[in-house]
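Page 47, continued from p. 46.
Same chain as before, 457 aa.
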Amino acid sequence: MTLPDYQDLRGGHSGPIVIAQPEGPLLHFRIALGADTIALDTVAFSTKPSASGLELTSASPAIAIQYEPSTDGYVMHIRGSVANAPSGSSLLIELPNALRSSEADTLDDLRHLAYVYHAPHRDVISVPFSKLDSTAVRTDTSSLQWASVRSKYWLVALMKPIGTDTGAIFHGIAMRGGTRVAKITRAASAVTAEPLVNGAFAFDLYVGPQSFARLLKFGNGLENVDQYAGLLHPVVQPFATIMLRVLLWMKSTLSLSYGWVLVIFGIGIRILLWPLYQKSMHTSIQMQRLQPELSEVQKKYKNEPEKQREALMKIYQAHGMSPLSPMLGCLPMLLPMPLLYALYFVLQNTIEFRGVPFLWLPDLSLRDPYYIIPLVMGASMFALSWMGLRAGPSNPQAKMMSYMMPVLFTVMFLNFASGLNLYYAVQNIAALPQQWTLSRARAKAGLPPPSLSAKQT
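Result:
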């Protein structure tokens, strides 16, 4: 299956993507007729063009199959019938054992290999090849709307006919692991079945990119085939979907490259989060003002908890605060975390960034070959930390963390997608003006505040 809109990125290769197994045909089909099972690649079919595709027929056994490609080239409508098929007959479909890699980072592509399927009223189930045992079969007897095999960017999916009211059409799936090479499971096996209804079967076959917008049109949940974030997927997925929709909308509206879209998006997110960070830092400054009074009260009523609590409440009330203010001040800093976590997976796994160059970066989905963006990200992170500490009291531990964290994150991000590094670097740089103004405000707040007694008089 050739995809002319996408290029093979492996070193030494060129030309369009070809979706295929490392060896053999992409799919295998068998017809289970009672006690007999017939492999369709052993049947002598005659072939002739039909009005919209291709028709295969055989006399013994009497089988007719029609292949009708869709207009977009990624979906094949497959219909067939078996004459005199006994009750209980079914079409057995063997999913690909693997998908041949077309990526610059082949090992990363292999790590994403998984069988993914969906049953009505259940979450999408993803089974990575690495989780399958070569000595045992893993089965799920649920009725399925679709079953698929995926790599990082590419997908082969069997699904119910598009636009029909038919519910689940596949009955169960059985999976087994393959051999491992250098701790990487490079192949596995899986089979599902479609029961024959009056001797007939019908399903659609999707072979193509894991494009969110394209898969969303099918209306069967196939856009959720990439089950990243593990146990946190139910929490991360809604944020990831929103962010992906926004990025796609910006690309189509602004008609800019995805590199500039990420730059504008990073600045826009920082502007949206500005009030939250402003509120958090304002609370921090207020607490800095109160700290001497709070410490004095805690020391004075050290052995009298009730009087200490009453005195602390008076201080908070005098400054228009409550005992919960410190915690509420941290809340604005925590709210963006699901968003940032979702963006990590979106920018690491979205096919729209695959092979997209920007400035000196050859591919936003791969690491920066010169490590410029990770270094800029680390330097901007250090600048934010330095500004945050310059007006505060001397704290050796905080000072040590301000040096260690930027170094740690820079090393960790060196081999991450350059698009991800670009976004975080832009976020940090866009945050510098706010951090500078807040650090100056904190420096002014460092003057000894008036005492509570003076305020009351």
